[in-house]
Amino acid sequence: MPSRRRTLLKVIILGDSGVGKTSLMNQYVNKKFSNQYKATIGADFLTKEVQFEDRLFTLQIWDTAGQERFQSLGVAFYRGADCCVLVYDVNSMKSFDNLNNWREEFLIQASPSDPENFPFVVLGNKVDVDGGNSRVVSEKKARAWCASKGNIPYFETSAKEGINVEEAFQCIAKNALKSGEEEEIYLPDTIDVGTSSQPRSTGCEC
Amino acid sequence: MIAGGIEDEEKWLAAGIAGLQQNAFYMHRALDSNNLRDALKYSAQMLSELRTSKLSPHKYYELYMRAFDELRKLEMFFKEEARRGCSIIDLYELVQHAGNILPRLYLLCTVGSVYIKSKEAPAKDVLKDLVEMCRGIQHPVRGLFLRSYLSQVSRDKLPDIGSEYEGDADTVVDAVEFVLQNFTEMNKLWVRMQHQGPARDKEKREKERSELRDLVGKNLHVLSQIEGVDLDMYKDTVLPRVLEQVVNCKDEIAQFYLMDCIIQVFPDEYHLQTLEILLGACPQLQPSVDIKTVLSRLMERLSNYAASSTEVLPEFLQVEAFSKLNNAIGKVIEAQVDMPIFGAVTLYSSLLKFTLHVHPDRLDYADQVLGACVKKLSSRGKLDDSKATKQIVALLSAPLEKYNDIVTALKLSNYPRVMEYLDIETNKIMATVIIQSIMKNNTRISTADKVEALFELMKGLIKDLDGAEEEVDEDDFKEEQNSVARLIQMLYNDDLEEMFQIISTVKKHVMTGGPKRLPFTVPPLVFSSLKLVRRLQGSQEQEENPFGDEGSTSPKKIFQLLNQTIEALSIVPAPELALRLFLQCAEAANDCDLEPVAYEFFTQAYILYEEEVSDSKAQVTALHLVIGTLQRMHVFGVENRDTLTHKATGYSAKLLKKPDQCRAVYGCAHLFWVEDQDNLKDGERVLICLKRALRIANAAQQMSNAARGNTGSVSLFIEILNKYLYFFEKGNPQITVATIQGLIELITTEMQSDNSTPDPAADAFLASTLRYIQFQKQKGGAIGEKYEPIKA
Ligand SMILES: Nc1nc2c(ncn2[C@@H]2O[C@H](COP(=O)(O)OP(=O)(O)OP(=O)(O)O)[C@@H](O)[C@H]2O)c(=O)[nH]1
Ligand SMILES: [Mg+2]
Fold first, then answer.
1. What's the rounded Cα separation, in Å, for the pair B157 and A62?
2. With CB atoms counted within 10 Å of each terminal CB, which end of chain B scores lower, N or C?
3. What job does the chain carry out (chain B) (predicted)?
């Protein structure tokens, strides 16, 4: 297959509302940060070109709504993901506890070919808050969880201060690239195109 | 969307995917061989699959996502083409030849995004062109997805500030204009859907519409992300235009959802500065819109913002957020006569949380909110709606959580009035929440007035309210009464006079509790009062006459109160508990040198003993308590003491079982020999008691011999021996070496006698007693000398 296939890497960012998914993406792609909270609705992506081992790739980063009521259409966009980023807020135990749900939900919905080895990356965000004094999830605890789920790479980040954001996404890109997720190879029943390409749709004529 | 069952739909989706994949396959081949024409042909055929009307939004989305992914490959190809020198304008023209309009528009959007990227034309013009052309699709589902595709591919190409597409002519205004227009069109499609198809499918249609809502709302998210939409632009353009669309569409689902979106998607500062506009839209919405949820979420959001940093609080004051919200809520409740009471309470509870966060110092605001709530509730009487009661608990818990201090909540005059409307069960739950708050925060409730208010508030726990359920879970009841007991212990004031008032107040309430509660609440009240007695004692010793005036607190007054309090237990009846408490009081009166009072308490205890304590085991326990207490009393003159002692020995002899009799009688010996009181050392009467005990032990021995032919009471003798040794050692002249010697021999013979069965415990007891004697002998000195003659 030509190289075009593997130059697009699809990444999904998941996590509770307010943990900083949108902020991380904006910091990485646009080098911008805002203190204001603006909830995400539905799913939304930004792209960024990354250089890796002398090759250029396009990272397609999907940011999702953490609030369930803003995810009305479902998660069809999980399909074909090469890496899934799980984000929590180190100052919120609940957001950490929910990582497991996000991970499991992703595995069920995206049904990757090799769930055991599907690449995840975990980010503990907002490490800057209050100089780390309001932190409730220790790095040790987070790392232990990551280890228990098949050695998920872990980063402590701050979208606000730009701490570890670049490093994290480097790792995300690397893992996305390594992920064995090949596109399903489609072979038509017959190479000869004839009537089969007639649209069967019988809707209106638009 | 007249699709049949789910199965049919799966079939249609599978067919769509198959068609899409097949065409995608040929599209890939064309792309690999740089065959633009074929690429366009197959991509158009692939996109034709999106023309289906047979799929629900969820399934359509799956198909759409596959097409979407394929189009990224096409987009990349276009980019390469452009890089190779192919004219994008030509490409833009070329794709317009696709036969069907839907594939054509998808292709146009795809090329359009590359077109903007190439900067061959101003972004503004391309976007305007695309957003106009999309009008060609008027089928709601297809149109919504197409427009969301447009929104998605143009997302990073909007000419907003700082973006590379911000040309000379292109401004943030154009970006906003483009998104607003797309939003408006999408909302129209979405609303129109409601009116298509037969009425019987209404429910299904609403479900499908609900699934599609994020496609519409997403535009608002995009607007909020546009760099350069500052407060002014938001206030002057964005918000009015969005609201205009929301209000005018007159659609319940759209209005509710979009109001929620606006609140969540735009920043707090903007909401504060445009509160009037936002709130002004509420009354214009359809009457069926769930405004309470919308407003509650707004207030919740703003409360969190206020809680995030004290620095933002001036913003709230500056715009008078409280009064605006208060007004708006008042209007909504007034206008929506049919709003369930639960809705109104939810609104008040959100407003209360809001004001507690934003104006922690303005208790009058909080009280005002509670007052408005009372007014609303007063039209209904007691609540029986569980959702509403839950909200009231949330409402009433809010001030406790905020101030961590019930004392502050007690200042809210409307607080107890709201509680009135709770059903009895919930009233109790709330009372428990209050007590827990007091415990957790160690709140000092330090005046009688506050105690009065507090107990009034918790009356569900204090007494039976009218209409209370008969059946209460025993454990729950115990737990709740125990927490009341703990609370009583916690009430405290340094000032003795005030403390007495507190106790009197508690007493007044506790006395209404009825037979089930009194055993829990009387003891802590008694002990709390006795503590006060001790404090009064202490201060009396320091100062000569602090209680000069008649009305002031004195131990006597407290004892009076205690007497009545404990007497109340007789209705329970709980004679054993009352007896214990009377004895405690007697001892306290003893410490205060109040002989008549102490005597009175003893009399009370004796009456109970005689008239109420009937169980033989309970009698034994009670009697030992009496003896123990009496022995410690030093306040009694000879006469009183004689009377009480005489009675106690009398009771002892009348116990049912011989061993009990025996033990009580030798216990009474102590009543005649008090260590630190020289006038209370009557050796003769001690001996009389001990001899009497021996006689009883003997009788017991004979009885058990007769009954079972074995000894059982030999240990009684050893116990008595120990008593002899005690008084011997203490220097009672009546206890001689000979009597002790005789007793030891008696016991040894008894234990070696033929008809005795082995009793290891008694053996060990005797052995250790003898060892003790040996030990004392070896001590030497006066003790050693005293013991020397005893042969063990
Ligand atoms: N101090 C600090 N604040 C952050 C950081 N990252 C995000 N925030 C703030 O947290 C809030 C939420 O951030 P978002 O990025 O919108 O959160 P999200 O996960 O996208 O939330 P949803 O879209 O609702 O799922 C915003 O107010 C951000 O400014 C961080 O690293 N440090
Ligand atoms: Mg977000």
1. 17
2. C
3. Plays a role in vesicular protein sorting.
